[in-house]
């Protein structure tokens, strides 16, 4: 069955003033959604990424360049991801339609390229 990557974009600044109890309630909503979808076999994995941390690697002129990241043109950054199992884009979108993240940002869905196998 095909796999899809759901990239979760948001503006980390929107959570800076959220009280700890409210933040825990938000995290629990994500966890509940993920566990339900894992039980259905629709979500294979997913993680929240650390805000403001990361590295960007580039090869220029045969030399490796490593810079701090992430970088974005706008306010939204990739804040997390889910790996989905679905028969089609339509099914992948249906899996995500009740994802709590849609209240806080956007989700980009990308299909695994079946022509390229990681093993």
List the helices and strands and how they pair.
Elements: E1 3-10, H1 20-39, E2 43-48, E3 55-60, E4 63-68, E5 77-85, H2 89-96, E6 105-111
Antiparallel strand pairs: 1-5, 1-6, 2-5, 3-4
Protein architecture, described:
The mean pLDDT is 91. The chain is of the alpha+beta class. The chain is 24% helix and 35% strand. It has a 4-stranded antiparallel beta sheet with strand order 2-5-1-6. It starts with a strand and ends in an 8-residue tail after the last strand.
Question: Any key phrases for this structure?
Answer:
four-stranded antiparallel beta sheet; alpha+beta; 119 residues; flat
Short recap of the structure:
This protein is an alpha+beta fold.
Proper CATH architecture: 2-Layer Sandwich
Major sheet size, sense and barrel closure: 4 strands, antiparallel
CATH class: Alpha Beta
Count of separate DSSP helical elements: 2
What is the alpha-carbon Rg in Å? 16 Å
């Amino acid at each position: 069955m095909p796999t899809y990557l759901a990239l979760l974009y948001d503006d980390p600044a929107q959570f800076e003033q959220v009280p700890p109890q409210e933040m825990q309630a938000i995290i629990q909503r994500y966890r509940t959604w993920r566990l339900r979808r894992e039980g259905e076999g629709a979500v294979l994995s997913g993680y929240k990424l650390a805000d403001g941390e990361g590295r960007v690697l580039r090869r220029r002129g045969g030399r490796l360049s490593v810079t701090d990241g992430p970088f974005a043109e706008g306010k939204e950054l990739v804040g997390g991801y889910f790996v989905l199992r679905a028969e089609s884009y339509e099914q992948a979108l249906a899996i995500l339609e009740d994802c709590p993240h849609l209240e806080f940002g956007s989700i980009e869905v990308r299909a695994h390229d079946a022509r390229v196998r990681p093993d």
